[in-house]
Amino acid sequence: MEEQITMPVKNNPTKVATKWALINALTAIIITYAFEFLNVDPNSPLKYLAYIPFIIFLFLAQKEFKDEIGGFMTFGEGFSVGFRYALFTGLIMALFIYLYCTVLSPAFFDKAIEASRTKMEESGKLSSEQIDKAMDISKKWGPLMAAFGTAVVYPIFGAIIGLIGAAIFKKERSAHDLIDDAIDPTV
Q1: Fewer C-beta neighbours within 10 Å, C or N terminus of the chain?
Q2: 3-class secondary-structure state, position 174
Q3: Torsion-angle region of residue 72: left (phi > 0), alpha (psi -120 to 50) or beta?
Q4: Reduced to 3 states, what is the DSSP secondary structure of residue 12?
């Protein structure tokens, strides 16, 4: 009878990252509507509270992936799952931001535009013609630029946090672990 050699299954970091990105997106959408319902100023420092779940879920994605691959994870594997999570979150949130500003809550976007107009008028640095031109551009391109900015900023911020998480969760196999795995192939 032939002895079959089974190769260890390499878990997919994309699956874990996608799961946590969807959870984070749902959480961010709930926070967005809660802020709108509570009439929180979009320029309030409270807007930074939305980053807390992002960071927590990035760390949870890295931890889950580490647990799935047997409790050992290289720095590169940890960074990979964290960056994928941030990239997927950025893409999902970019789509949401665009839809939110154009379809789901255009009144909120209009209110933000008016707040910008008021700030520009109060600063006195621009003429009323320049302000009108800036507002026209903002109304036309604002949602698209907000979506693009979201798609770019999330992966950059996630890369930084992912590096920190990878350093925290990194646990490489030692020579002793490799010998134990060779003796007991069920590991």
Answers
A1: N
A2: coil
A3: beta
A4: coil
pTM: 0.78
Sequence-ordered list of residues with C-beta below 8 angstroms from that of 46, at least 6 positions apart, any chain = 35, 40
pLDDT digits (tens, 9 = 90+) for 37-72: 888 877 778 878 889 999 999 999 999 999 998 888
Rounded distance between C-alpha atoms, residue 96 and residue 169, angstroms: 31
Q: What secondary structure does DSSP assign to 31-55, as a single string?
A: HHHHHHHTT--TTSGGGGGGHHHHH
* Cβ 162 vs Cβ 83: under 8 Å: yes
pLDDT in tens, 125-170: 777 787 778 777 777 788 889 899 999 999 999 999 999 999 998 8
User: What 3-state DSSP class applies to 26?
Assistant: helix
* C-alpha span between 79 and 77 (Å, rounded): 5
How far CA 31 is from CA of 23, 37, 54, 82, 134, in Å, comes to 12, 10, 12, 22, 29
